[in-house]
Amino acid sequence: MAKDNVFKVGDIPIKSNLILAPMDGLTDHPFREIIKRFHPGIIFSEFINAYDYLNNHPFFPQQIVFSEEQRPFAYQIFDNSPYRILQTALYLSEKNPDLIDINMGCSAKTVASRGAGAGLLQEPQKIKQILTLLTNNLTVPVTAKIRLGWDDTSLNYLSISKLLEDYGCAMISVHGRTKKQGYQGKANWDAIAEIKQNVKIPVLANGDVNSVDDIQNIIKVTNCDGVMIGRAALRNPWIFSGLDHEQVTLKQRLDLLSNHLDLMIQFYGLESGLILFRKYIKFYLDISNLGKEFRSNLYNQNDPLKLKSSLFTIMNTQIN
Ligand SMILES: Cc1cc2nc3c(=O)[nH]c(=O)nc-3n(C[C@H](O)[C@H](O)[C@H](O)COP(=O)(O)O)c2cc1C
To answer: Please, is 86 exposed, middle or buried when counting C-beta atoms within 10 Å of its C-beta (0-12, 13-18, 19+)?
Structure first.
């Protein structure tokens, strides 16, 4: 799956066409340390709120940590103010990321309804302003992640993509849904194909990629330069190595899960590390049919060794 120099973003060679999607609260430094072992072509941060930088949010310093091994690494920023985005991008560019990405696709009410994320799709003039400010003031390539439009009656993905290209955007990632769809319905790969046909900069296709077959299919339909993978990477990080969930042994999964927990504790400390690790459990394992009491014990476990032991037991029973 991974080839040498599959495509370039600006001057940066990208060595695999499989890309880790940004996911708020999930693609943090410890998770990216896990994922880097599978060598995705680009690793995105979770989105960074420009307000958090400007207001010295206590979590901000932790949120922007990344390691050399995570390169090519992209910081993603969201806000509705071009000047706040610029200030944050200038600060983040001092950390020497490979790319700065602007979120133009988040569908969450708290983000989109204040004109950030997918809200920006309704304001092409503001997109021009953001790209102009960033490309004039940064040396790092600027990229964007979009959806197809606000809703079915405002599918402006082609005009937005061309505008992005005209104003110096170095790559576009496209989640093939509208803001209104959220995560419902099928991702529209044909629309992503249309974008790819109409711009010269690299395009990443995103949405409804759950298996190695899906990767082949989305490339066939869209002819995109790369495939951005989100939730499937949480369930099966091996997807970046071209392996489906069933092709990975129980021991491999247990080792990874155990490593991930250790990294969370090292990075966030024992208490926070354990609490923050809990949200990954439902991706690693199907625990929906375990009893309420068992699940509650799992989520309230304060001893990492006992937590690992319970998770190993569940994994074993699910396999056998
Ligand atoms: C929990 C969660 C958090 C997300 N956070 C972000 C984010 O911070 N920035 C962003 O551009 N997209 C975000 N997304 C969207 C994903 O990057 C991706 O576009 C979407 O999940 C569809 O891809 P998938 O089907 O491969 O998961 C998030 C998605 C999920 C499920």
So the answer is: buried
